[in-house]
Design goal:
This protein has about 100 residues and is mainly β. It is about 10% helix and about 40% strand. It is built from 2 helices and 6 strands; from the N terminus they run H-H-E-E-E-E-E-E.
Length: about 100
């Protein structure tokens, strides 16, 4: 979901890092990736730059920008989300099926 190596690395440095075990075993965390109770659905945008996660109680969807490793926005709903899909290459068009 995104580039495996930062764009600013030169090609020869990138090849050297692919063999570096410490670099390959690193952990990167998304900022604000928590939900009060549960998260039910996860979708990655077709361009691989964004991740949308639906949670419940309170019903909400959060969109994360993977290149920045942070939350882009959050939206709350009146009822639980049964299903969701990302329609556009980025997150600009999304559809939600509610349980009511």
């Amino acid at each position: 979901a995104g580039k495996t190596l930062p764009e600013w690395l030169k090609q020869k440095n990138a090849k050297a890092l692919r063999n570096d075990e410490e670099y390959r075993s690193r952990i990167e965390l998304l900022q604000d990736l928590d939900f009060p109770i549960t998260s039910q659905r996860i979708r990655i945008s077709p361009d691989g730059e964004f991740m949308a996660i639906a949670g419940n109680y309170p019903p909400m969807v959060r969109v994360y920008e993977l290149s920045e490793m942070s939350m882009k926005f959050e939206r709350r709903f009146d009822c639980d989300i049964a299903e969701m899909e990302i329609l556009s290459p980025d997150y600009s068009k999304m559809v939600f099926l509610h349980q009511d």
